[in-house]
Write a structure and sequence with these properties.
Strand order of the largest sheet: 1-2-4-5-6-7-8-9
Organism: Methylocystis heyeri
Radius of gyration: 20 Å
Protein name: EAL domain-containing protein
Bound molecules: ligand C2E, magnesium ion
Helix content: 40-55%
Structural class: alpha/beta
Distance between the termini: 54 Å
Order of helices and strands: HHEEEHHEHEHHEHEHHEHEH
Number of strands: 9
């Protein structure tokens, strides 16, 4: 595990020796094993994509969807992306996994746009998460752009979700990559809004289409006055900037009603549906009585 040890030693500063206790060692061993399993799993088709509907609270219509990666490990069962995405990032696999999820989402979005799977599927835009690391190294967004062009997939069918930290660093490279995606019609969402540095100046500089209010604010919105105040402020600001809002992690009717009353019309959460496999998503759309 020399490579990994070296990496951590470097990360902790120059000319420093780092000694690992047995706990750290077994974590490194575990992570290395996971990178290995993940690479193998990706090749073996163990990674799949689920789709969570995003609902217009007032009409109940499904207007968008978020693509979320899933890993079915043959021994450990389903492993959460909050566990394996960070491992993919440090283990150098995030480009492969990210590209796989994007292509899969693009395929599904195209099929929904043709209503191929069901006569009443509607055509919700599908947004795909993109880690900061995916903007650096390799060829940036070029593979995504090329994939859309090669397969004649309209960018309007897709979106990209990024986090605040990425914009804060003020990299012209990031701005250029987002511009390339937007030029094709791909929407840009700012994910987990409110949990990062929330330096609001970048909202003006970067063209952001959607703000996703983080689940941590939505959770206690009914009981907690402070959370309600923060959400109200976010809504007021987004409105003035012409940015649409999506509330994450909506689990109760009370939360949805409160958000809608405050002016946040789109919601995503277990109240409506958890992330679903492609087929189940279509069944959910049909059951909701939507039509094209
Ligand atoms: P995220 O992008 O903020 O995605 C929303 C997360 O909230 C998802 O967790 C979703 O299942 C969960 N969620 C939705 N509604 C509710 C609710 O009502 N209650 C609760 N408690 N949770 C809800 P998930 O699928 O486990 O994904 C976790 C994170 O992993 C994502 O957070 C995203 O940051 C990352 N991720 C997932 N797929 C990908 C991917 O393909 N690429 C990258 N780079 N990151 C991904
Ligand atoms: Mg997201
Ligand atoms: Mg989120
Ligand atoms: Mg979140």
């Amino acid at each position: 595990y020399a490579d990994q040890a070296m990496y951590f030693a470097k990360a902790s500063g120059r000319n420093q020796f780092v000694f690992f206790g047995s706990q750290a060692r077994s974590k490194i061993r575990g992570d290395n094993q996971m990178v290995h399993d993940l690479r193998h799993g990706l090749n073996q088709g163990q990674i799949s994509v689920h789709y969570q509907p995003i609902i217009d609270v007032k009409t109940g219509r499904i207007v968008k969807a978020e693509a979320l990666a899933r890993w079915s490990h043959p021994v450990q069962g389903v492993i959460s992306p909050s566990e394996f995405i960070p491992i993919a990032e440090t283990g150098g696999l995030i480009h492969e996994i990210g590209d796989f999820v994007f292509k899969e989402a693009a395929r599904v979005a195209l099929s929904w746009s043709k209503c191929a799977g069901a006569p009443a599927c509607g055509h919700p835009r599908i947004s795909v998460n993109r880690s900061p690391r995916q903007f650096f190294g390799r060829d940036g967004v070029a593979p995504w752009v090329q994939h859309l062009i090669d397969n004649a997939i309209p960018g309007e069918l897709l979106g990209v979700e990024i986090t605040e930290g990425l914009l804060l660093e003020n990299q012209p490279e990031v701005l250029a990559q987002l511009k390339q995606l937007r030029a094709l019609g791909v929407a840009v969402s700012l994910d987990d809004f409110g949990t990062g540095y929330s330096a609001l100046s970048y909202l003006k500089k970067f063209d952001i289409d959607y703000l996703k209010i983080d689940r941590s604010f939505v959770r206690d919105i009914v009981e907690d006055e402070h959370d309600r105040a923060i959400v109200e402020a976010i809504i007021a600001m987004a409105k003035r900037l012409g940015i649409e809002l999506i509330a994450e992690g909506v689990e109760t009717r009370e939360q949805a009603d409160l958000l809608a009353a405050g002016g946040c019309n789109l919601a995503q959460g277990f109240l409506y549906a958890e992330p679903l496999p492609e087929k189940d998503f279509l069944d959910f759309v049909l059951a909701s009585g939507a039509s094209c």
